[in-house]
Design brief:
Blueprint (H helix, E strand, L loop, with lengths): L7 E3 L1 H10 L6 E5 L12 E2 L9 E2 L3 E4 L9 E8 L14 E4 L11 E4 L3 E4 L6 E4 L9 E2 L10 E3 L7 H9 L4 E5 L3 E6 L4 E2 L10 E2 L2 H11 L3 E4 L7 H14 L2 E5 L10 H8 L1 E7 L1 E2 L3 E7 L2 E6 L3 H19 L9 E6 L3 E2 L5 E11 L2 E6 L9 H4 L3 E5 L5 E2 L4 E6 L2
Parallel strand pairs: 1-19, 6-7, 14-17, 14-18, 15-16, 18-22, 20-25, 23-26
Antiparallel strand pairs: 2-13, 3-12, 4-11, 5-7, 5-8, 6-10, 9-10, 19-21, 21-22, 23-29, 24-28, 25-26, 25-27, 27-29
Bound molecules: adenosine monophosphate and magnesium ion.
Length: 408
């Protein structure tokens, strides 16, 4: 067995870059508009017409010619126009037309006086309206194309489709849209001691946590998890299970069995069956990380301790899924906060400390959630994220500003 020193020690950024460099976005498919929510746009969308398509009233009121207006003047009312029923005859000089919000502006009129700024006068069949406040020329009129102009680039390929982008596509009359295929991600826990929930727990066994945390994180990252049964630490079983995973997924994520223990076999299988890079990542928790390809499918092997697995997924698995799903902006939700505790340590690794956040006098304050062991999952359930302690800091006094990655 090679010793840990035989393997490269990488920074988090180097490891992340190596993962991203070897992953390509998935193919683009056509999806019905609503099914495209939370997916990533696979085409750049240009408007083929103005939005709104016509000048229309922004208020319920009277469409008029601005040149006719003066305070207290009375204008005869020529009729009423509702949204969706264009009025084709021009508004004659010195006349007003009742108009409802969203109705197309009639020819001739350039301004709308809202009802609240008028007084109705005269009988219904010979109605007139008195102007109590004179608006600016063009006031209360929405111009054709004021939202989007014909020919304008509206959405770029690689953009995440949120409800507002779905609405924008609807405003252009789209019923379907080209998006990247969603990644199917196989999740495989390893370990003789690890058993799936629903089975009795025998002496020495623990329930499988990582399949569930990682699957939930995959869902949050925009992928579809495929949960496989935990596999024991046997090379033949592991090989068979990984081959099955390879045929069914765009990415495989394993947990456990990737360190230098006697029964840590994931690396052996990757070397025998595919291509492997193994690194020590200069971070805590979560030092060992294997990445490679099996039959062309990328495989990310996370450490087994539940906190280390979650954090490593966040740092390396999440961006991998974002790249697969075509996102052009692979971001990391991060805020700045003040440490409530003093941090001392001396190992030169980047530490990720579990914290809960409090708003105090306009500042976000980060408190340690307690025991920081990499198997203490409650250190994460008690908090909202992890404070990043840079490699170079041996001593950080309380009150120091740190980055906090949000793991909500
Ligand atoms: P390993 O990386 O396989 O040596 O595992 C490190 C630690 O994480 C051991 O204490 C394992 O029992 C634990 N562990 C590994 N996989 C899981 C899992 N899926 N759920 C909960 N704990 C796990
Ligand atoms: Mg193990």
């Amino acid at each position: 067995m090679r010793t840990p020193e035989d393997y490269a020690l990488l920074s988090v950024e180097q490891a992340r870059q190596r993962v991203l460099d070897s992953i390509a976005p998935l193919p683009i498919v056509e999806a019905p508009l609503l099914a495209a929510l939370d997916r990533v746009l696979g085409e750049t969308v240009c408007a083929s017409f103005d939005v709104p398509p016509h000048d229309n009233s922004a208020m319920d009121g009277y469409a008029v010619r601005h040149a006719d207006l003066a305070l207290g003047i009375q204008l005869p009312v020529a009729g009423a126009v509702a949204a969706g029923h264009p009025w084709v005859a021009p508004v004659k000089p010195g006349h007003a037309l009742r108009i409802m919000t969203g109705a197309q502006m009639p020819p001739g009129a350039d301004t709308v006086v809202r009802f609240e700024h008028t007084t109705a006068c005269g009988a219904a069949d010979a109605a007139a309206v008195r102007i109590d406040r004179v608006p600016r020329a063009g006031e209360n009129v929405r111009q054709a194309g004021e939202d989007v102009r014909a020919g304008q680039q509206v959405l770029m390929a690689g953009a995440l489709l949120r409800p507002q982008e779905i609405g924008m596509l609807a405003s252009l009359g789209r019923t379907s849209i080209r998006v990247y295929r969603r990644p199917r991600v196989a999740v495989l826990s390893t370990g003789d001691e690890v058993v799936a929930a629903g089975q009795p727990l025998l002496p020495g066994q623990i329930y499988d946590i990582n399949s569930y945390t990682v699957a939930a994180q995959i869902m949050r990252a925009g992928g579809d998890p495929l949960l496989l049964e935990p596999v024991p630490d046997r090379q033949d079983h592991l090989t068979a299970r990984l081959h099955r995973a390879m045929q069914q997924s765009d990415l495989i994520i394993t947990s456990g069995g990737v360190s230098v223990g006697d029964f840590d076999l994931v690396k052996q299988v990757l070397v025998a069956e595919g291509r492997m890079d193994f690194w020590w990542v200069n971070m805590k928790p979560g030092k060992p990380l294997a990445f490679g390809h099996l039959g062309g499918v990328p495989l990310l092997a996370l450490p087994g301790n539940p906190v280390a697995a979650m954090l490593s997924f966040h740092l390396f698995g999440r961006p991998a899924i974002h790249k697969l799903r075509g996102l052009s902006n692979i971001d990391e939700p991060v805020i700045c906060a003040q440490l409530a505790d003093t941090i001392e340590r001396k190992d030169g690794r980047r530490h990720y400390l579990r914290v809960w956040l409090e708003e105090r006098e306009g500042q976000t304050v980060a408190h340690l959630t307690g025991d920081q062991g990499s198997g203490i999952l409650s250190s994460l359930t008690r908090g909202q994220g992890v404070a990043v302690i840079p490699e170079s800091c041996d001593h950080l006094p309380a009150g120091s500003t740190v980055k906090v990655l949000l793991l909500d």
